[in-house]
Amino acid sequence: MENCLFCKIIAGEIPSEKVYEDDEVLAFKDINPMAPIHILIIPKKHIDGADKLDESNTAVVAKIFAVASRLAKELKLDNGFRIVTNVGSDGGQTVRHLHFHLLGGAKLKTELC
Ligand code: AMP
Ligand code: ZN
Fold first, then answer.
1. Which ligand 1 atom sits nearest the alpha carbon of residue 84?
2. Which of 5, 14, 30, 37, when mutated, tests ligand 1's pocket best, judged by the most ligand atoms within 8 Å of its CB?
3. d(CA 94, CA 57)
4. How far apart are CA 49 and CA 97, in angstroms?
5. Ligand 1: residues whose CB is within 6 Å?
6. For residue 47, how many C-alpha atoms fall within 13 Å in the half-sphere facing its CB?
7. Angle, vertex CA 63, rays to CA 24 and CA 39, nearest 5
8. pLDDT tens readout for residues 13-57
9. The pTM is what?
10. Which atom of ligand 1 lies nearest, measured to the CA of 28?
């Protein structure tokens, strides 16, 4: 999608530190990490956000969670981690391309809002 930052990252028009890639999913380091490990996992096919998920496009979400689990093992997040997706302006979504934050490497704060 035009003018979508993450679509530009997928297309290689904007550089990123990739940690995983396949036909459907890309994972890369967040540019402004909020934890020692902070990775963004995104579908390559543009979806605005979790509010735009339905039966026709949720299969990739299962794949994203499998990638998150695989990365967590590779990165030795043995004590746990957190997966977060922000939705819309109230949810704090600043990039309108569905993405899941994989956070870990430290004891994370428990406040969610
Ligand atoms: P959200 O606020 O949930 O929409 O998350 C968007 C995330 O994208 C933020 O954590 C940003 O730090 C991250 N971000 C923005 N631009 C880039 C970029 N060029 N490369 C990697 N991460 C980015
Ligand atoms: Zn996009």
1. 3
2. 30
3. 21
4. 6
5. 5, 14, 16, 30-32, 40, 86, 92-95
6. 24
7. 80
8. 999 999 999 999 999 999 999 999 999 999 999 999 999 999 999
9. 0.98
10. 21
